[in-house]
């Protein structure tokens, strides 16, 4: 795997391509990220890079983390995320990773936390059709109907599509195209929608 970057989702807009077509894009403030630590197979048993984004007040950081920040000469970060890569020896603590790692037209995957929608019924959560709104159907239009067997096996199987908590899950969208890279303002324009609410943390990975 190759190194990615951390960013904040700013919202959606549109741009026009050379053919004059409107392209919906998500604007992400990507980086610059600091390399806080480097994991090596010799020391940690695997190869990875720990990236940090944003700023955090020093008194809100635990002593072990404060020592790690002091060793690499990086100010405390709001977010820390690890990226598994094949050769972490190419990077060193304190190095800066910015949007220059991506190129226009490149295919990426974006990971974020989806919007939490609270408790939802089966029609909203699982796209059930619901019952008929005709004569004989009373106060049951959005109910899930029968949900289990009677005498055998006398229970509902795990994974049954039922009402429950919707959203607030880690979601990854693959095969998204980078429409534009604004190195001056550290912005990435990615075609289509990405998971999460505005100002939420997202992880952008290179495909492959």
Automatic annotation (TrEMBL):
Keyword annotations:
Ribonucleoprotein, Ribosomal protein, RNA-binding, rRNA-binding
Which parts of the chain are coiled coil? Answer: none
GO MF annotation list:
rRNA binding; structural constituent of ribosome
Which Gene Ontology cellular-component terms appear in the entry?
cytosolic large ribosomal subunit
Q: Name one GO biological process term.
A: translation
Assembly notes: Part of the 50S ribosomal subunit. Forms a cluster with proteins L14 and L19.
Mind telling me which PANTHER family this protein's record contains? Answer: 50S RIBOSOMAL PROTEIN L3, LARGE RIBOSOMAL SUBUNIT PROTEIN UL3C
Q: Which family does it belong to?
A: Belongs to the universal ribosomal protein uL3 family.
What exactly does this protein do? One of the primary rRNA binding proteins, it binds directly near the 3'-end of the 23S rRNA, where it nucleates assembly of the 50S subunit.
Under what name is this protein listed? Large ribosomal subunit protein uL3
The species this protein belongs to is Pyramidobacter porci
């Amino acid at each position: 795997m190759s190194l990615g970057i951390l960013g904040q989702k700013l919202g959606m807009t549109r741009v026009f391509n050379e053919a004059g077509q409107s392209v919906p894009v998500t604007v992400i403030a990507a980086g610059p990220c600091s390399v806080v630590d480097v994991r090596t197979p010799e020391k940690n048993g695997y190869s990875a890079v720990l990236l940090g984004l944003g700023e955090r007040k020093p008194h809100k950081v635990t002593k072990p983390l404060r020592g790690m920040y002091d060793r690499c000469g990086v100010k405390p970060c709001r977010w820390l995320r690890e990226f598994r890569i094949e050769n972490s020896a190419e990077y060193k603590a304190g190095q800066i990773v910015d949007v220059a790692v991506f190129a226009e037209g490149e295919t990426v995957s974006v990971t974020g936390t989806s919007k939490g929608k609270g408790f939802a019924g089966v029609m909203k959560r699982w796209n059930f059709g619901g019952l008929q709104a005709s004569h004989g159907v009373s106060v049951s239009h959005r109910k899930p109907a029968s949900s289990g067997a009677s005498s055998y096996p006398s229970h509902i199987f795990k994974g049954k599509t039922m009402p429950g908590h919707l959203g607030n899950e880690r979601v990854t969208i693959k095969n998204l195209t980078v429409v534009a890279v604004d190195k001056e303002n550290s912005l990435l324009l990615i075609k289509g929608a990405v998971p999460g609410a505005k100002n939420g943390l997202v992880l952008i990975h290179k495909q492959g």
